[in-house]
Request: fold
Amino acid sequence: METAELLKKVRKIEIKARGLSANVFAGQYHSAFKGRGMAFSEVREYQYGDDVRDIDWNVTARFHRPYVKVFEEERELTVMLLIDVSGSLDFGTQKQMKRDMVTEIAATIAFSAIQNNDKIGVVFFSDHIEKYIPPKKGRKHILYIIRELLDFKPESKRTDVKQALEFLTSVAKRRCTAFVLSDFYVQQDFLQTMQICNRKHDVVAVQVYDLRAKELPDVGLMRVVDAETGYEQYIDTSSKRLRQAHQHYWMTRQQQLCETMNKSNVDMISIATNDDFVKHLLMLFKQRS
Reply:
């Protein structure tokens, strides 16, 4: 991508993502993703209704009247974006490519994070770790992430979610909030890895899919290519049996994916490329508040 065109796209995404994070997600993000705990802030005189367990007995003894400890939330979080950059993301039959939507969602989460003074880091993954951007704060850092999202060229077209989760578990020493953004196109058993990862961190799964993965149109003979393996074949979409089999396959895979997330206690949202991701993110934030 030409530099001028890239900068134009970065700016466009920044304007949209900053607007959403400031106006739509302002309070929702903060309440949905809590800080590490409560830290001691100061002492003040006891007031009627205060919890007696918060009384600071040392200060109380010194001043001969009761004082209580005041705590505040340790707000600063580290947010990690685990972003699937495999070949299957370069597909879209509706409003946009899956990769474009992932970029917009990632940018919106990133701007919401820095507005709360949180650090943001990124892991690009295919069937191996393609790139790791350590967590930092600030607008310049986010713009660098968006540029990479738009212009990154992965070495591999295949996917391995398990690798990304294992990498996060090993590289992030302190608890963080991790968003896994993927189409979860390849069927894999990553249940145990997800459970281990979510015990150490707070993991959220964001699935982006195209409507044609769910339903095939009746348009006769169609050439289809697997974006990850390159396997090519022709299918007859006028066959009702084939369309039903395709839909059944999708539903079975989705059920397995939902079971994996449920057993791991991981919140998941699924967003189609022709859908409004804002509505889904708001729903996710509200249910976690």
